[in-house]
Amino acid sequence: MKIYDIAVIGAGPAGCMAAIQGAQQGKNVTLLEKNDRIGYKLSLTGNERCNLTNTATMEVFLEKFGRRGSFYRDAFSKFSNQDLMNFFIKHNLELKEEEEGKIFPITEKARSVVEVLEKVLDEEKVKLIYNYPLEHLHKTSNVFKLSSIEGEFINAYNVIIATGGVTYGFTGSTGDGLTIAEFLGHTITDLKPGGVPLRVREEWIHQLKGVTLENVGLTIGYNGKKIDLPRGNLLLTHFGVSGPIILDMSHIIVGLMKEHGDLKLYIDFMPEIRKDALGVLLMEDFQKYSKKSLKNYLKHHLPNNLIIPILNTLIIDPQKKLNQITKKERLQLQEILKSLPLTIYGHLPMDKAMVTCGGVSKKEIDPQTMESKLVKGLYFAGEIIAGCGGRGGYNLQQAFSTGYVAGVSATK
Ligand SMILES: Cc1cc2nc3c(=O)[nH]c(=O)nc-3n(C[C@H](O)[C@H](O)[C@H](O)COP(=O)(O)OP(=O)(O)OC[C@H]3O[C@@H](n4cnc5c(N)ncnc54)[C@H](O)[C@@H]3O)c2cc1C
């Protein structure tokens, strides 16, 4: 009966890196993948250009993973963003830096990243077994017994589960590893979507699909409390809102929605000016340009396609001259320019999210080795671990770093 030193489950970035590291230390490694290829999701990342990592500092990396981000300090030091870049450069894939420190392959093709992993897995003689959907895993004395849905059995002294989260299920990430981890006694934290667009109740917004509101201020309101989001671009869609800020903050917003129900999203079209100063400006302008129509005047302050819909919600005639606007209407305009309220009532389904926030509880994983604190010889790597990072290459770095640490640790 053959017993592998290490069996890695799932050939995404985390599993591939874990298998490569295990094999480089001279271990007998098998990588089991339910698809007929490696890195399906990886090949779709960054609009198929793959935002591999980021040049940000360690502190920024940890911040991007939220409250328990410091869990990754060890993994990010053992295999840093620079180490990851060196890995690909060493294997002849040049990289380039874009805005906000995002790193992409110079080919602008995620496929090139997958090809490097394929090549290195082959060079390191990792035994790749495709079409192997792991269904069951249990340990008897010091050996793990793995079985697929078709009942193919494999034995290994160490197992690394790197089956990803539960989004984009068609790529293979359907949460199988979470079921197996739970069966082995692990706690699975609440699974929330990360990087997901949000649904807005106000239907007039849906008509404005494709419009980007540039550099607006955004605030979330719930239960009498307010949270300011970073300033940035907001994309309007046929169901609500998306764009970088929403995708980055969606896991927090979804969490608040679960607790408090519908939320308000306030849009500040003029974040560089205080509300009282805007009041004075409007008063002066309305005198100065008294013969101008309101519709024409608002072009200075609002994107063109929003003027009529917003005036409709306020029931103000867009053709009215500025000297006909009542004080009440002027105050309403002041309010709406600083704080247009939209109602957030939901999000696109989990499967459409970029990442799964939630997974195997970090409390049950040793951050130095990625080994389970409950089952000796069992390791976790990648998105299966609870929590998630923001956009910008942070999630792939997490997958590669935790894969590296799990792979190296499983050889010891
Ligand atoms: C559209 C999209 C774009 C993205 N873009 C970026 C980006 O540009 N930058 C970034 O940092 N992050 C990005 N992400 C997130 C990133 O892709 C993930 O965080 C990352 O792929 C997680 O890696 P992983 O190895 O943990 O899991 P996955 O990549 O999900 O791989 C898991 C593997 O396990 C296999 N598997 C699952 N169950 C079993 C089983 N029972 N038996 C055998 N094999 C199994 C799956 O088939 C899959 O191959 C993006 C995500 C999406 C959906």
Description:
It is a single chain. The chain has 412 residues and is an alpha+beta fold. The chain folds into two domains: 3-192 and 356-409, FAD/NAD(P)-binding domain (3-Layer(bba) Sandwich), CATH 3.50.50; 197-347, no CATH class. It is built from 14 helices and 18 strands. It has helices spanning 13-24, 45-48, 58-64, 73-78, 81-90, 110-123, 176-183, 203-206, 244-260, 275-288, 294-298, 304-314, 327-338, 394-409, and strands spanning 3-9, 29-32, 53-54, 95-97, 102-105, 127-129, 134-140, 143-148, 153-161, 192-194, 198-200, 212-222, 225-236, 240-242, 263-268, 340-347, 355-357, 378-380. Strands 1, 2, 6, 7, 8, 9 and 18 form a seven-stranded mixed beta sheet that branches. Strands 11-14-13-12-15-16 form a six-stranded antiparallel beta barrel. The longest helix is centred in the middle third of the chain and has 17 residues, at 244-260. Bound molecules: flavin-adenine dinucleotide. Residues 9-15, 32-35, 40-42, 44-46, 50-51, 132-134, 162-164, 167-168, 172-173, 176-177, 354-355, 382-383, 393-396, 399 line the site of flavin-adenine dinucleotide (FAD).
Notable traits:
binds flavin-adenine dinucleotide; 6-stranded antiparallel barrel; FAD/NAD(P)-binding domain; alpha+beta; 2 domains; single chain
Bound molecules: flavin-adenine dinucleotide
Radius of gyration: 25 Å
Looking at the structure, what is the overall shape?
A: elongated
CATH second-level architecture of the largest domain: 3-Layer(bba) Sandwich
CATH T-level fold name of the largest domain:
FAD/NAD(P)-binding domain
| CATH homologous superfamily classification of the largest domain | FAD/NAD(P)-binding domain
